[in-house]
Batch of 2 targets.
Target 1
Amino acid sequence: EAQVTQNPRYLITVTGKKLTVTCSQNMNHEYMSWYRQDPGLGLRQIYYSMNVEVTDKGDVPEGYKVSRKEKRNFPLILESPSPNQTSLYFCASSPFTKGQTYEQYFGPGTRLTVT
Amino acid sequence: QQPVQSPQAVILREGEDAVINCSSSKALYSVHWYRQKHGEAPVFLMILLKGGEQKGHDKISASFNEKKQQSSLYLTASQLSYSGTYFCGTEIGNSGGYQKVTFGTGTKLQVIP
């Protein structure tokens, strides 16, 4: 089954304790992206990647890191989480062809609480 | 720049119709529509491209007025399964496939029996 998976689905942590949220897709998509969803603010893009070793900042990258060492994986790293990063996080993937727009496939989400 | 969606919320009875609007202050290359059910991931509905091309479900109807920089999603003969939050995403200019889609804050639709 074609899908995007995220782990963990729920996470409660304390301020400053480094954490990683994993994202994996089995559709051989070149493009992957991370979003955060907050009430009243909709989906905001954190980082995206067009292919292995190619990443770029989205609209709200502060406090986050990403890496893309394999095509299927795109982990999100919070080196020193703070309470304002409490949010619902979604990973998404899509094909990538220069000049073409495609639909994005979203993972199930990770609900993160930082106390 | 985040697109503006209206209404913010709407309640329908089964069988009724609804229109969700999405507008931008800038010229648009494409408009994307997604639906998110409570506790689930957003699911793709449709992409409307400048020039009239559409990609998406045959049963979903939408329009894209390039001149007015807005799009509308039409939900006809609503069913309980239509309930959820609808997001539009806008792409300003052809971002060359880099998916520079900015999402609105969503329209919460509830269909009741």
Target 2
Amino acid sequence: DTGVSQDPRHKITKRGQNVTFRCDPISEHNRLYWYRQTLGQGPEFLTYFQNEAQLEKSRLLSDRFSAERPKGSFSTLEIQRTEQGDSAMYLCASSPPSGVASPGELFFGEGSRLTVL
Amino acid sequence: AQSVTQPDIHITVSEGASLELRCNYSYGATPYLFWYVQSPGQGLQLLLKYFSGDTLVQGIKGFEAEFKRSQSSFNLRKPSVHWSDAAEYFCAVGPLEYGNKLVFGAGTILRVKS
């Protein structure tokens, strides 16, 4: 049984560059979430997919951020024109269809740490 | 606005001692409450959850939490801490629906001394 996997685990980039993170959820999980965690803070919700549909986006997700889940399986989170304030851990989580697990029972990946120089 | 406060940034306890991690929340409706644990290099793992019924809930690894509506609290407890419990603990709150967005506290780092 493989858990949620994220790639890359670490990314160092220069300000202004674009970066993309990938998340592979647990198979048969139809819900996928992106959170961001900065140092000394808890995870903050960014966006949520049910299958391929992006159902909710946080206002934290500026127009430089875009997330996709094209076939309802893996998801990508792209940050364009990165800024130093984007430095954070980007967490992906997934959850199974209704009734299989309780609401809010999320299965998290280990995260992708972004450092913007 | 929804918010979660974990007043203690760091807590150090001796192995074998009891533990209580505090969590206070602000939520406009009936909350769904969670405790997650994050060990170094690992993803967050659900310890326990509460949404109705018995206000004392049991979780994995010997943890329990008590929901007190009058105090808007959901404190996490363990009677005897093991060195492997050293990690960061997050309290979270969310609505009673699937696809909810959880609001997390800032976390409490637990150190265990032998």
